[in-house]
Amino acid sequence: MDAATATAVQLRLTPELQYVLRLADTGLVHAQRLSEWCGHAPVLEEDIALTNMALDLLGQARALLTHAAALEGQGLDEDRLAYWREHDQFFNLTLVEQPLRKPGAHAPGGDFADTVLRNFVLASWLKAACAALQTSRDETLAGIAAKSLKEARYHQQHNADWVQRLGDGTEESARRMAAAVQRLWPYTAEMFEHDAVDEAARTSGLGPARQDLRAAWQAEVAEVFAAAGLTLPPDTPFRSTGTQGRHSEHLGYLLAEMQVLQRQHPGGRW
Amino acid sequence: MSAPAAESPRDEWPLFEVFVRPKSGLDHKHCGSLHAADAKMAVQLAREVYTRRQEGCSVWVVKSSDITASDPGDRAMYFDPMEDKVYRHPSFYELPEGVRHL
């Protein structure tokens, strides 16, 4: 491998590329977080379910990154994009990079309630996005969306059940679920922000602007929350900016772990 | 949705038996068991564990405690499987065309 491919990728960013990377990176980073549960879930069957969801999301991310590499036009591929971009070249929702599991007593991270709630709000969001993307003028994107929609539906159902089960379970589980809602809610605003990338996607027929997803998402979430005895928190002024390439302190650590081997052995074949 | 409080944490995850009929299959076959909090979750997890979410397959789950099994101790009663009484086997019928899976 020549030196050029052993250096960090500098993207030739267009609104279209950023739009696709927002979806791809959200799936990739969320899959990475979910896979941290492997072997640690409350029960064996849920362990399998969580890792299966991670696999689905990783599959979606691979397809989207491959497509993003083609759009970018420098001859990159999914691996170069996953392992050789710095954090400011990632465009995932800030929500998905937040720690999910507490590796130690004093480490950041949440509990199982955080996990099912995050899965639920994201799956609802991806479901709305994929449904709209099926009619994208970009045929590859439309194809990926059609395939991803089935998976998003399943993820949404599975985790909606859990949100209800915990919200409407014991006193302890209800308390934890409510606490998870409080912690997570400020990060949901970013799912519906609107900027030039969204505007370009909407006007060019590439896909929905994030604003366009809000009504469908809100309806689903409200229904499940009502059944779970949870209240939707009011909007907060906090705004996260991962989709702009400006991330929380957690993404750097996540990438360091995810990318270390590729960077130690540039050009290795696996 | 919320179940009555369980006696012990072990009771919160009763055992379910899983029967799956594949997409082009004719009958449900027992393929294993799993623990789940309720039947709905058992179906979901069965899809996850036993079918890899293949489209078009049917899943049944039954609480293991609802299954009554024959007693292995009764085998002595069935010592004579009627092998020597061919007239007791339905093996002398001509099947009309078009009857399959019999």
Automatic annotation (TrEMBL), chain A:
One of its GO terms (biological process) is phenylacetate catabolic process. It comes from the Bacteria. Pfam families: PaaA_PaaC. GO terms for cellular component: cytosol. PANTHER family: 1,2-PHENYLACETYL-COA EPOXIDASE, SUBUNIT C, PHENYLACETIC ACID DEGRADATION PROTEIN PAA. This is Phenylacetate-CoA oxygenase subunit PaaI.
From TrEMBL, chain B:
It holds the Pfam family PaaB. This is 1,2-phenylacetyl-CoA epoxidase subunit B.
